[in-house]
Amino acid sequence: MSNLKSQISNVVALLVSVLASLLVVGIVAAQGGPVTDDQVNTVAKRLNCPVCENVPLDVCETQACVQWRDLIRQKLAAGEKPEQIINYFQATYGDRVLQEPPRQGFTGLVWILPFVGLVAGVAILAIVLRRMTGQPAPVKSEAAPSELADGYRERLERELQELQ
Amino acid sequence: MSEAALPSTKNTGSSIWRVVALLAVAGLVMALALQLRARNAAQPKSGVAPDFTLKMYPGYDGGSGKPEIRLTDLRGQVVFVNFWASWCVPCRDEQPALEKVWRQYRSKSVVFVGVDYVDTEPAALKYLAEFGVSYPNGPDLGTKISPKYRIQGVPESFLIDRQGNIVLFKIAPISEAELIAELDKALAK
Fold first, then answer.
1. Nearest to A63 among B9, B10, B87 (CB)
2. What is the reported pTM?
C-alpha cells in the first residue's frame, strides 16, 4: 500500500515537473528570445522623436530617442505586440508622437483635405477650360427657363392680371 | 415683365459657390495664422498660471499621500513648477540645488512640483532616485501640461505666487541663490 502511494506521488511529481518545464519553455518561446534592432526600429519608425520636428524615432540620435527605443525594446522583450506599444506611446505622450496622424477627430482632416483640394482643383480647372473653349457650362440657361422660373412667371402674370 | 428681371438660377448658384470658396480660403488662412501664432507664442511670464492636474509617480507625491496634485488646490502657497527630463543634461546640473532648496522651504508654505517632459518612466524613476528627489513629481501625461506653459525645452521653471500668478519664468537652470531670493520675494508679498 505504501509502495503504491509512493509511486502515485512520484508520478504526480513527474507530471508537475513536466508541466512546469513546458510552461517555462512556452513563456520563453512567446518572448521570442533577444529583441533585434530591426524589431525595435519597425516600431520606432511609426513614432516621432519627442524633441525634434518631424524626425522619425528610428533615425534620431538624441538621448530622448535612445531612451524611447530602449523602452520599445523592453516592451517587445516583455512580449508586448507592436500595436500595444504604439498605443502606449500615444496614450502617454499624445497624438503628436505618431508618424501617421489618427484618421479621426480634427486631425482626420489631414487625410480628407488633400482629396477635397484635388476635387476642387479639378472642378475649377474644368470650369475655366469650358469658359476658355466657349462651351456652355452644364447648367440650365435663361433661354430655356426652368420649371421654377415658369411657375414664377405664371404666378406673376396671374397676380398682375388680378390687380388690373 | 421682362425676362431679365426674373431670378437667374445660374447667377445665384455661381455666387453661392464664390462665397463658399472665399469662406474656405479665409478659414484656411485663419487656421494657418492661428497655428503660426501658437507656435511662436512665448512662455507666460505673468498673469494667472494655467491650471493643470499632475498624476504623480508612485512614491513621489511629496508626502501628500494623494495620487494627483492640482495647481489650483495649492492657492495660498508659493509654487515652484519645474519642467525636466532624465535625458536633459542641464536638468542634472540644477537638480541638487532644487532638492536642497525644497528641503529648506517645504515647511514655509512652499510647494515644488516637477513635471517630467516626454520621458520614459524607468529612466525618470532612476533619475529621481539618483538625486534623492522628494518633492511631488510626475509625467506630463499626453503632453498636455507643457503646451499650456508653451515650454520650448527643459529645464524651464515658473514661480507662482500665493494668488496663483506667475512671478518668474526661467528658461535656463536656476541657481540655488536665485531660487532662494525669488522664493523669499514671493513669500514676502
1. B87
2. 0.70
